[in-house]
Design goal:
This protein has 474 residues and is mostly helical. Helices cover 48% and strands 11% of the residues. The protein contains 19 helices and 12 strands. Strand 2, helix 2 and strand 3 form a beta-alpha-beta unit. Helix 11 packs across helix 12. The longest helix has 23 residues. The chain is elongated. The relative contact order is 0.08. The model has no long low-confidence stretch (mean pLDDT 92). The structure holds one RNA strand of 76 nucleotides.
Length: 474
RNA sequence: GGUCCCAUCGUCUAGCGGUCUAGGAUAUCGGCCUCUCACGCCGAAGACACGGGUUCGAGUCCCGUUGGGACUACCA
């Protein structure tokens, strides 16, 4: 007997950018659907017209695409599905599972405050519940929920969860402006879109019994629930903007690779033995709701940084060169020879944790005139290396094997003849060629730069040293 | 306040009653490699929140305490 096709969903509300936490629940839903050869649907929950923006919707879609989380259906917009909600509300009204409530918001607010100050539950008191009222201007529709018994469900990550129905009040299904509330819209959408697996943040566990009540009032089968723990900031409170960058796009712009972010997000709250690194296909193969942890976790950039460095090292240099272009442009470096960028990337791979770091570290390759790092200039570009600089400059300009091997040979000959150590001239040359005291290996750098550039840069350094000398002489 | 959820190194986590003198990763520190910085390799330090049970035996099961988080809207 073929099992039912798994249908998962990701329902962001377009009131802000896609953040790390949302991306992770999207990832889990996507992984589960892909693994079960099911479908993944994207739904935009924009019933809160005031706070929803098109810009946020675009940013969310862009984030999903960047992460490579492709959806099979949608995006559906709740704002365009009001007719559907309307018919379901009517259905509930017709069967007596819902009723019209005329209580004004002011009265409700006041009662809630009273109860709270008395230490009682601030829930709706059911004034209109059995009055058999009809619709009226300003009235809402409420669910007539059971006041006795318990609502219990099996959660795939948390286990059995059970709440006394007396804790739940008659929640509003339709607002006075006729729009559906979140709870109604979610349930109706999941029913009509065929969603049978709900994976979401555990800030929704308390909402689940309320939503189950709606399913029951409608006589519809319940989906499978899996509530994954929240992501916290370093201070162990819910991750938010004040913890720094939380938007997916911000990580893209800081130079992270999507695979690194995905890997980090997957490992936050989910594990597979001692394995730390996972390709997308491995994640699809190995993911399981059962091995999602129950405890909330702190989002840690250190680990992401390390993963990103690893993915950079593992990536093809040519591809990285393409991804690096916007970061080089940010530094004012345009129209670069793609071949030279690729070779530069090759030398920068083991020493870059982000694309941004890589661009900064590689920028010297593409600058016509270098500005020397202050400390390196003072310490290494000195008169006492002039002689060696000049000698090496001449040998290099006559070199006809400008490969790493050829250069190593040229240098070892020179060192042997003069009896000096490489250490004596390496740093001065490094500063001359790169402007910095830390860089890829000297010979690698020279190969990428090419003979003409190397000679030109050494000449410039020699001139620079002479100029400093003259300055001092005066 | 009430309800629900959670609790292993700084952080992410392995552990599903005996194999735990608690493993991995990251961060930190030390060493090796070395033309610098990285990478890589080797090593060090670092955790079962607390208290009761259950059991021959508990990080692992139960209860309580403490601490965290979520929800408690005509927001999602």
């Amino acid at each position: 007997m073929p099992a039912e096709t798994v249908v998962t969903r990701f329902p962001p509300s377009p009131t802000g950018y896609l953040h790390i936490g949302g991306a992770r629940t999207a990832l889990f839903n996507w992984l589960y659907a892909r693994q079960k050869r099911g479908r993944f649907v994207l739904r935009i929950e924009d019933t809160d017209v005031r706070r929803s923006t098109e810009e946020a919707t675009r940013a969310i879609l862009e984030s999903m695409e960047w992460l490579g989380l492709d959806w099979d259906e949608g995006p559906f917009f709740q704002s365009r599905r009001y007719d559907i909600y309307k018919s379901f509300i009517k259905r509930l009204l017709d069967t007596g599972a819902a009723y019209h409530c005329h209580c004004s918001q002011e009265v409700l607010d006041r009662k809630r405050e009273e109860n709270r100050s008395l230490g009682l539950k601030p829930k709706y008191d059911g004034t209109c519940r059995d009055l058999g009222l009809g619709p009226a201007p300003g009235s809402v529709v409420r669910l007539k929920s059971p006041s006795t018994g318990r609502t219990t469900f099996q959660d795939a990550v948390k286990g059995l969860i059970s709440v006394d129905n007396s804790e739940l009040d008659d929640l509003v299904l339709r607002r006075s402006d006729q729009s559906p509330t979140y709870h109604l819209a979610v349930v109706v959408d999941d029913i009509t879109l065929g969603v049978n697996t709900v994976i979401r943040g555990d800030d929704h566990v308390n909402n689940t019994p309320r939503q189950i009540l709606i399913y029951q009032a409608l006589g519809e089968p319940l989906p499978k629930y899996a509530h994954v723990p929240m992501i916290l900031g370093p201070d162990r409170t819910r991750l938010s903007k004040r913890h720094g960058a939380t938007s997916v796009l911000a990580y893209r712009d800081m130079g992270y690779l999507p695979q690194a972010l995905l890997n980090a997000l997957a490992r936050l709250g989910w594990s597979y033995g001692d394995q730390e690194k996972f390709t997308k296909d491995e994640l699809i193969e190995k993911f399981s709701l059962e091995s999602v942890g129950r405890a909330a976790g702190v989002f840690n950039t250190e680990k992401l940084l390390d993963l990103n460095a690893w993915y950079i090292r593992e990536s093809d240099s040519r591809e990285l060169a393409g991804l690096l272009a916007p970061f080089l442009e940010e530094l004012g470096l345009n129209n670069l020879d793609p071949d030279r960028v690729t070779r530069a990337v090759d030398t920068m791979k083991p020493r870059s944790r982000t694309l941004r770091e890589m661009a900064e570290g590689a920028s010297f390759y593409f600058q016509d005139t270098l500005s020397y790092e202050e400390k390196g200039d003072r310490k290494f570009l000195r008169q006492n290396v002039l002689e060696h600089m000049e000698a090496l400059r001449n040998r290099l300009s006559g070199c006809n094997d400008f490969s790493e091997k050829g250069l190593e040979g040229l240098f070892s000959n020179y060192l042997e003849e003069t009896g000096i150590k490489l250490g004596k001239i390496a740093q001065p040359l490094r500063v001359a060629l790169t402007g910095k005291t830390a860089s890829p290996g000297l010979f690698e750098v020279m190969v990428v730069l090419g003979k003409a550039d190397v000679v030109r840069r050494i000449d410039a350094a020699i001139q620079h040293i002479r100029a400093k000398e003259d300055e001092q002489a005066r």
